[in-house]
Specification:
This protein is mainly alpha-helical and 490 residues long. Helix content is 71%, strand content 2%. It contains 18 helices and two strands. The two termini are 21 Å apart.
C-alpha cells in the first residue's frame, strides 16, 4: 500500500471542516455523516492495506537540519492503528448522532435555526483530524503539534454554549489544565532534542539515567493532565457542560485517550525505564481509580457520574502500561486493549444519556426511573453499556480487564497484592454502584419526567438515534474482535 494514504487520511478531516463550516441546514447534516464516513473508509483502507507491512512511514515535510526523519514524519503501526480505529469509528457515530442532537427537538439544549452548528461541526471534524495526527505522529514534535490542536478543539467544543457561564468557565478550565501538561511535554522535547539532536521517540531510550528520568516525569505529567489523572482530574467532570456528543467523544476516543497513547508510545519506543518509574505510575493510577470510585457515590448528574467512571477507567489503562516497567508485558498490552474496549462502552453510555436528555429535558438520576416503559431501546442499550463498562462477559471490557488480571498475576513480590487488592475493590464496588444506578433509571415506577414524554413510536427521528445506539451496543461485543489482531502485534 502507498504510505501517502496516511497523508490523505490526516488531511481529510481538516479539509472537511471547511464545507462543514460553510454549509447550513440539510446539506450540513448530510455532510456531517458523509465526511466522517469517508474518513473512516480511508482509515480502514490504511490499516487493512498496510497491516502486512507495518510500520508504514511517510513524511509531510522535512527540515533536514532538525531531524533526518523529517519534522512531521507519519507512522502507522499496530499501536497507532488501534487508536486510529477508535477515533474514526466513534467519530462517525458521534457526528451522526449530533445531526439529531443539535436541533430544535432537544429539550435540554434546543438549537434553533442551526445557531452555532457551523462552528460545532467544523471543530468536531478538526478534533477528529487532531486525534488522527496524534495517532500517526512519527516523532515527539509532530505529536506535540497535534496534542495542542486537541486542546484548542476541546476548549471550543466544551464552551459551545457561549451564553452559559458554566460552559465557558469549564472550557477555559480544560484549556488551562491540559495546556499545563503541554508545557511539560515541551520540556521533554527540549531535553530529548538538546541531548540527542532528534525528536525521535526511540531517542528517549538512549538518554543517560538522569535526563531520561526528567523526560519520563515530564511526559507523565503531560499525560496525567490530558488523561485526568490525580491530581489533574478536576477539569473533566466540569467539562460535562459540553454538548453530550462532545462529552462522548472526549471520553471515548479523544483527548483523554491521547494521554494514555502518549505513555504507551513512549514506553514502547524507549524500551526500558527503571522499575521506580513503574511503581510511581502504578501508584498514581491506583489513587486515580480509588478517587474516581469514591466520587461515584455523590453524583446525581448522569454525565458527571460517567465522567468519574472515565477517570477510574483511565486509571486502569495507566496501571496496565505501568506494569511494563514492573516486568509484565501482558499488563502493557492489557492497558492498550482497554483503551479500545472502553471506547465503545463509554460512547454508548454517553449517547444513551444524550437521548434521555433530548427527550426528558433532565439528566438527574433522582428524577428518572422506569425509563424502559417509554424508551425501551435506549434503556436496553444503556444497560448493555453498564454491563460492558463494568466488565461482564461477553462485552468488551471483560476481555481487557481479564487480560489486566493476568498481567497483575505475573508480578513478583509484594507488588502483586499491593496492586491486585485495590484493583479488585474498584471492579466489585464499581459494578454494584453501576448496577444500582442502572436499576434506578430503567426499572420500577416511571417518574414524572418519564411519564411526561411520548413513547418511541410516536416521536419522529427516534429510529435514527436508536439505530446509532444499537450499532454501539453491537460494537461492545465486536470491538475486541476487531482490535485483537492489532493487540497481538504489540
Amino acid at each position: 500500500m502507498n504510505p501517502d494514504v496516511m497523508v490523505w487520511l490526516l488531511a481529510s478531516p481538516f479539509l472537511g471542516a471547511i464545507p462543514l463550516y460553510l454549509a447550513r441546514g440539510r446539506t450540513q447534516r448530510a455532510l456531517a455523516v458523509a465526511l466522517p464516513a469517508a474518513y473512516l473508509a480511508i482509515g480502514v483502507l490504511a490499516v487493512a492495506g498496510g497491516r502486512a507491512a507495518f510500520p508504514l512511514q511517510a513524511s509531510v515535510f522535512s527540515l533536514p537540519w532538525l531531524d533526518d526523519a523529517g519534522v512531521f514524519p507519519l507512522r502507522l503501526d499496530a499501536l497507532s492503528a488501534i487508536l486510529l480505529l477508535v477515533v474514526l469509528i466513534v467519530g462517525l457515530l458521534v457526528m451522526a448522532f449530533s445531526t439529531r442532537y443539535m436541533g430544535p427537538d432537544n429539550r435540554e439544549h434546543p438549537i434553533h435555526d442551526g445557531e452555532g452548528n457551523h462552528r460545532y461541526y467544523a471543530f468536531l471534524s478538526l478534533f477528529i483530524g487532531s486525534m488522527i495526527g496524534v495517532a500517526l505522529a512519527g516523532n515527539l514534535l509532530a505529536l506535540f503539534v497535534f496534542w495542542e490542536c486537541t486542546t484548542l478543539c476541546s476548549w471550543v467544543l466544551i464552551s459551545h454554549h457561549v451564553h452559559q457561564p458554566l460552559s465557558v468557565r469549564a472550557g477555559f478550565k480544560a484549556l488551562v489544565m491540559t495546556h499545563l501538561g503541554g508545557v511539560f511535554l515541551v520540556v521533554a522535547l527540549a531535553v530529548v532534542f538538546g541531548l540527542t539532536g532528534t525528536f525521535s521517540f526511540a531517542a528517549i531510550g538512549r538518554l543517560a539515567p538522569t535526563p531520561q528520568a526528567i523526560v519520563f516525569l515530564c511526559v507523565l505529567v503531560a499525560a496525567s493532565a490530558k488523561s485526568a489523572q490525580v491530581p489533574l482530574f478536576t477539569w473533566l467532570p466540569d467539562a460535562m457542560e459540553a454538548p453530550t456528543p462532545v462529552s462522548a467523544y472526549l471520553h471515548a476516543a479523544a483527548m483523554v485517550k491521547a494521554g494514555v497513547y502518549l505513555m504507551a508510545r513512549v514506553i514502547l519506543e524507549a524500551g526500558t525505564f527503571p522499575e521506580w518509574t513503574g511503581a510511581l505510575m502504578a501508584g498514581l493510577a491506583l489513587v486515580t481509580m480509588m478517587v474516581g470510585l469514591v466520587f461515584y457515590f455523590f453524583q446525581d448528574d448522569l454525565k458527571r457520574f460517567l465522567a468519574f467512571s472515565t477517570i477510574a477507567q483511565l486509571g486502569y489503562m495507566m496501571l496496565g502500561l505501568s506494569l511494563f516497567m514492573l516486568g509484565s508485558k501482558t499488563g502493557y498490552v492489557a492497558g492498550v486493549f482497554h483503551l479500545a474496549c472502553h471506547s465503545v462502552a463509554k460512547a454508548l453510555l454517553f449517547l444513551c444519556v444524550g437521548v434521555m436528555a433530548m427527550r426528558l429535558g433532565v439528566r438527574s438520576i433522582s428524577k428518572i426511573s422506569g425509563l424502559y416503559a417509554r424508551m425501551p431501546i435506549a434503556a436496553t442499550c444503556f444497560f448493555i453499556g453498564v454491563l460492558a463498562v463494568t466488565g461482564i462477559p461477553p462485552f468488551s471490557c471483560f476481555w481487557s480487564k481479564l487480560m489486566l488480571v493476568v498481567g497483575i498475576m505475573e508480578l513478583k513480590g509484594p507488588a502483586m497484592p499491593l496492586i491486585a487488592v485495590p484493583y479488585y475493590l474498584e471492579i466489585v464496588l464499581g459494578f454494584f454502584w453501576f448496577l444500582k444506578v442502572g436499576q434506578r433509571l430503567l426499572f420500577g415506577e416511571p417518574s414524572e419526567a418519564v411519564l411526561a414524554i411520548e413513547p418511541d413510536s410516536a416521536v419522529a427521528g427516534t429510529g435514527f438515534t436508536n439505530g446509532i445506539l444499537v450499532v454501539l451496543a453491537a460494537l461492545t461485543v465486536l470491538m475486541p474482535l476487531i482490535v485483537y489482531p492489532l493487540v497481538r502485534a504489540l
